[in-house]
Amino acid sequence: MTEISMHAFVSGRVQGVWFRQSTKDTGQSLGLKGWVRNLSDGRVEVQASGEDKAVRQLEAWLGQGPELANVAEVECTYAEAMDLPFPFEVR
User: Fold this and answer.
1) I want to staple 5 with a disulfide (CB 3.0 to 4.6 A). Which of 13, 27, 75, 82 is the partner?
2) b or e along 4-42 (b: 16 or more beta carbons within 10 Å of the residue's beta carbon)?
């Protein structure tokens, strides 16, 4: 079982639409460690770590987000697994 970390920036209509809470819930359901927060430029930042398959499932979910979101772009970078907060949290 390979573990990785993902750092992502999500842009579009992603603030004020339950994006952070939904990301937290999705991250927790996938057994991931990490956090999500709003940025002052209107994007959402996500840092997640865990099983490769689960991290990539979160990345796919970020491309759609919750029902009220309208995701324009997801920019992701990957690295070796990092020690992040567990359970997944909103910052």
Assistant:
1) 82
2) bbbbbbbebebeebebbebbbebbeebebbbbbebeeee
The answer as to whether 91 is a domain residue is no
Would you say 88 and 33 are in contact if contact means Cβ atoms under 8 Å apart? Answer: yes
Q: State the Cα–Cα distance between residues 10 and 82, nearest whole angstrom.
A: 20
Predicted model pTM = 0.96
The pLDDT tens digits for 7-20 are 999 999 999 999 99
Residue 38 in any domain: the answer is: yes
Which residues does the annotation mark as catalytic?
20, 38
Report the CATH number that the domain containing residue 50 is assigned in CATH. 3.30.70.100
